[in-house]
Write a structure and sequence with these properties.
This protein is an alpha+beta fold. It has one domain (about 30-205): Double Stranded RNA Binding Domain, CATH 3.30.160.670. It contains three helices and eight strands; from the N terminus they run H-E-E-H-E-E-E-E-E-H-E. Helix 2 (about 60-75) packs parallel to helix 3.
């Protein structure tokens, strides 16, 4: 019996670990992604990551998000400009977070087009952009809440402000869970947004 116990115990521990990992994986929210471009090659070059709202450029929160986007652009072969104002390409970045009660069905729209605004949020929720000071929903605090995180990026030419590529990704997580954390959520969304760059223009995809 002792020998059997010695054999079974490691197996039980491995099974428990596998179940725990499976549980963690199941908690990773899917990302809804849509992208638009002109169907022309986008040559990697020097690029700067800047906020949609210029007043947020020096905010710690935006710098965190900018670093995440920079990492993805670097992976694609872009060179992050040392002197940002002189780069021809600009990645205009916007992050928005919204809260709603779990189970509420009203959702945000993924209908954006090249050169259009991609802001928004859930109707009836509290929505803040990068640099906002609100970190909780208004109203009843006893309800279970979901957090919608949206990341939108426009690649523009600085010389004429023309948009050569635009994408938006969003995900939903239960408030208080790991992927409701802003940095974790944006990291997940940036990876999904730039996967298979530039992607098929106008196609909506779900990344799991």
């Amino acid at each position: 019996m002792k020998i059997v116990a010695k054999i079974l115990l490691p197996k039980l521990l491995l099974s428990a670990a596998a179940l725990a990992l499976a549980g963690c994986a199941a908690q990773i929210p899917e990302a809804r992604v849509t992208r638009f471009h002109l169907g022309q090659p986008i040559a990697p070059g020097e690029i700067a990551v800047e906020p949609r709202d210029p007043s947020l450029a020096d905010e710690l929160e935006f710098r965190t998000y900018a670093r995440i986007v920079q990492d993805e652009l670097s992976r694609l072969g872009f060179k992050v400009a040392a002197n940002a104002p002189r780069s021809e390409l600009v990645a205009v970045t916007d992050v928005r977070r919204s809260w709603r009660p779990t189970g509420q069905t009203t959702g945000s729209s993924m209908s954006i087009g090249l050169g259009t605004s991609s802001g928004g949020g859930w109707h009836g929720g509290t929505s803040v952009g990068v640099g906002g000071s609100i970190s909780f929903p208004l109203g009843k605090q006893t309800e279970r809440m979901d957090v919608l995180t949206q990341l939108s990026v426009q690649l523009k030419r600085r010389s004429d402000s023309s948009v050569v590529w635009e994408g938006r990704a969003e995900s939903v997580a239960h408030d208080g869970t790991p992927y409701a954390n802003p940095e974790a959520a944006v990291t997940r969304l940036a990876e999904a947004l730039f996967r298979g760059f530039p992607g098929k223009s106008g196609e909506f995809i779900t990344v799991k």
